[in-house]
Amino acid sequence: MSKKIAIPTDGEVLDAHFGRAAGFTVFEIEGKQVRKVELLSATGLQHQHEGLAEMFKRNGVDVLVCGGIGGGMINGLKEVGLAVITGASGNVADVAQAFASGILVSTGSVCQEHDHDHQHQH
Question: For residue 70, what are the domain limits?
Answer without folding.
Answer: 3-119
